[in-house]
């Protein structure tokens, strides 16, 4: 599967900064999980795998595995769009501790 | 086969970006790239999507992507298309993602030139109705009455005094091969238009409403609701321009309340009942025109 992934964060010096506009695609060095104050939690009993949360997630952190929504919490920002879009009400928002 | 959640490419080409939670623009970019696939070459001018996608060494695009000058989205697309063609590479799509300011104000000349040359490119304007990246300044696509930092709401002047520029019809006036309007709220409609555009030779333009919770003053979870309501209340229309003709994709028999749509957003909080009447009347006038002149 093609997807940007987290790599080792090197200490890039000025000499490493690309002079032209090319750099390795899909190169991530930090996650976004610290942005969240609430997190979506999937109730797999209610989830029917309709993929609407996957379709409308701005961050693309939801994938459907074995017909159930699975969330990548490393990159979820906790916006709650998935919870609102979910017709069966399978995604609840819980406070981060 | 039409595009739906089930048939969409499972790869994520725009991932780990630093857009605000609930960003409509990033949703548009993410899903368009899923439709166009790994050989899409994305061009992004100054704007939110380049600011959140390229933070060296972080590069949130898994496909080829490049930042252009603010005014030069379409001209860079022209160059990319010509360059690949010259090198004999056929399996690619040159696609640009510019914001409303980068399209209707700063990039309009380059876009007009590209359409004039009929270069084989796709230009997506993700319209969040102001220069959101720099802190919410009015653009040519900011609607009447909206409060921005350059059109503040006071007792005399209630936000933006000018209506939204009619970008879709400006583009269509070039007799472009394909142009369409869409909203991230009705994703299937939007993505099918993108897929249709990808199969048409020549310049394609898609104008997609992408709400910005930060700039519009709505909760981050309400992006999709706002993107649907703007169509349902008639302040935006879903249409296509093809074969020299306009066509509505959706012709609502009744509209929901404009006031309900506006009152939910902090940028319209100051509007008086008269202001809302002006907006409602202009909506009715627009739809009268559309129904009279479009198929």
Question: Which terms summarize this structure?
Answer:
heterodimer, A: 97 residues, alpha+beta, Alpha-Beta Plaits, two-stranded parallel sheet, two-stranded antiparallel sheet, 2 helices, 6 strands, 10% helix, B: 295 residues, alpha/beta, Rossmann fold, eight-stranded mixed β-sheet
Question: Could you give a short description of this structure?
Answer:
The complex is a heterodimer of chains A (97) and B (295). Chain A has one domain: Alpha-Beta Plaits, CATH 3.30.70.20.
What do these coordinates show?
The complex is a heterodimer of chains A (97) and B (295). Chain A has 97 residues and is an alpha+beta fold. In chain A, 10% of the residues lie in helices and 23% in strands. Chain A has one domain (5-95): 2-Layer Sandwich (Alpha-Beta Plaits). Chain A has 2 helices and 6 strands; from the N terminus they run βββαββαβ. In chain A, the strands form 3 sheets. Chain A has a two-stranded parallel ribbon. Chain A has a two-stranded antiparallel sheet with strand order 3-6. Chain A is elongated. By secondary structure, chain B is α/β, with parallel strands linked by helices. Chain B has one domain: Thiamin diphosphate (ThDP)-binding fold, Pyr/PP domains (Rossmann fold). In chain B, strand 2 (54-55) and strand 3 form a beta hairpin. The model of chain B has no long low-confidence stretch (mean pLDDT 96). At the A-B interface, strand 2, helix 1 and helix 2 of A face helix 1, strand 3, strand 4 and helix 9 of B.
């Amino acid at each position: 599967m093609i997807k940007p992934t987290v790599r080792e964060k090197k200490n890039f010096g000025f000499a490493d900064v690309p002079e032209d506009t090319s750099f390795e695609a899909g190169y991530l060095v930090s996650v976004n999980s610290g942005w969240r104050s609430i997190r979506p939690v999937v109730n797999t009993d209610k989830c029917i795998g309709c993929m609407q949360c996957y379709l409308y997630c701005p961050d693309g952190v939801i994938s459907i595995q074995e017909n159930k929504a699975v969330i990548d919490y490393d990159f979820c920002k906790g916006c709650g769009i998935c919870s609102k879009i979910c017709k069966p009400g399978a995604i609840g928002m819980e406070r981060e501790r | 086969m039409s595009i739906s959640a089930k048939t969409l490419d499972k790869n994520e080409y725009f991932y780990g970006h630093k857009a605000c939670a609930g960003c409509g623009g990033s949703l548009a970019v993410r899903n368009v790239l899923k439709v166009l696939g790994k050989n899409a070459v994305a061009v992004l001018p100054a704007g939110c999507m380049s600011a959140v996608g390229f933070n060296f060494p972080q590069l949130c695009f898994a496909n080829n992507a490049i930042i252009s000058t603010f005014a030069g989205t379409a001209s860079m697309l022209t160059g990319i298309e010509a360059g690949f063609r010259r090198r004999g590479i056929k399996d690619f799509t040159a696609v640009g993602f510019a914001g409303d300011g980068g399209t209707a104000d700063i990039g309009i000349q380059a876009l007009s030139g590209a359409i004039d040359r009929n270069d084989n490119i796709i230009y997506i304007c993700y319209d969040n109705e102001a220069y959101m990246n720099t802190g919410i300044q009015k653009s040519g696509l900011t609607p009447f009455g909206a409060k921005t930092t350059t059109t503040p709401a006071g007792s005399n002047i209630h936000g933006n005094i000018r209506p939204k520029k009619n970008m879709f019809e400006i583009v269509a006036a070039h007799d472009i091969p394909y142009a369409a309007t869409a909203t991230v709220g009705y994703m299937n409609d939007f993505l099918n238009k993108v897929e249709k555009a990808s199969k048409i030779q020549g310049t394609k333009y898609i104008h997609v409403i992408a709400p910005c919770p930060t700039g519009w003053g709505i909760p981050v979870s309400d992006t999709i609701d706002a993107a649907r309501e703007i169509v349902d209340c008639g302040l935006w229309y879903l249409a296509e321009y093809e074969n020299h003709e306009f066509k509505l994709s959706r012709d609502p028999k009744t509209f929901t309340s404009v006031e309900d749509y506006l009152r939910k957003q902090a940028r319209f909080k100051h509007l008086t009942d008269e202001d809302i009447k002006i907006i409602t009347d202009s909506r009715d006038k627009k739809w009268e025109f559309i129904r009279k002149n479009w198929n």
